[in-house]
Amino acid sequence: MAYDIQSETFWREWQVSDEDLDRLLEIFLERNAPLTLEQMARALVDRMVREIKEKSGGEADAVYDPTELYEVGTRLRFPRLGNVVGTVVGVREGHNPRYERFSVLQVRFHNQPDVREFVADFHHRHALNFEPGAVTEELSADRVYVQFQDIIHEKLEAALEASGDFARFGELWLPKGLLVEINLGNRNIAEAMVDVMGKPLPPEELLTEMEVPKDVAKPILVFSVNYALDNDERFLNKGTDRKPLWYLHRLEA
Fold first, then answer.
1. What is the dihedral of CA 189, 191, 195, 199, to 10 degrees?
2. Chain-centre distance for alpha carbon 56
3. The domain containing residue 218 runs over which residues?
4. What is the distance between the alpha carbons of residues 179 and 166, in angstroms, rounded to a whole number?
5. Does 42 share its domain with 146?
6. Phi and psi at residue 193, in whole multiples of 5°?
7. Are 243 and 183 contained in the same domain?
């Protein structure tokens, strides 16, 4: 049994929820910078995977295979038990006259008082309802992202645009609540600077004369300037989205 998140069906049916948007806001607050769609998607999948692992008992050292023998202290994930994780707390010899020597693992699961037992080092495959070659891989955020990134990107982008709570400039996004207001006065300063210099100027240079908070991270300040000027009809970008250079329409020859 694999996790739902590892299946294409899960992502085809997945809709970005308010909970997902809250996760994204937390990610932005942690990073303290604008993010690309890829950065958001990777971080969101990573957070979803961590939450799944926390609920099922955390990280595992291996996925349980009855043909293997494990040492005390090994943390095993059990696909057929809903991918819960348990810790091997004891190993004893197994006794069954029908089979050659094998071992029995004593496993304790998170929030469960009783120890459960599972066969180990057991090589009588005809007696197992289990195919060793079909052992579920440990859940990996990187593998999930790489496999389903196109679906995730498409749905995430649509949700961000529909929410109205995110600002976008080029490939970068930022929650509008984190934007620094570049008011009319600051935009007028930018216009005057371009007018005096007579050439396109980068946002970093325009910021040197603007009155903006000093305790805000520079990537957020730069994004806020780019977003504000991009939405001011006086300005046009003569550079690229990654390296914008702001000029004035009225100075165009």
1. 110
2. 19
3. 179-251
4. 9
5. yes
6. -65, -45
7. yes
- Quote the tokens at residue 131: 């195919």
Find out whether 45 and 141 touch, Cβ atoms under 8 Å: yes
Tokens for 140, please give them.
């990996």
118 & 75 share domain: yes
Six-digit token string for 61:
């050292």
Burial class (CB in 10 A: 0-12, 13-18, 19+), 67: middle
The residues facing 160 across adjacent strands are none
Is residue 201 assigned to a domain? Answer: yes
Divide the 253 residues of the chain into consecutive groups of 10 and give the mean pLDDT of each group.
Answer: 73 93 94 97 92 73 86 85 84 82 88 86 66 56 93 96 95 97 97 96 97 95 98 97 96 82
Evaluate if pTM is beyond 0.90: no
User: Does residue 52 sit in the same domain as residue 146?
Assistant: yes
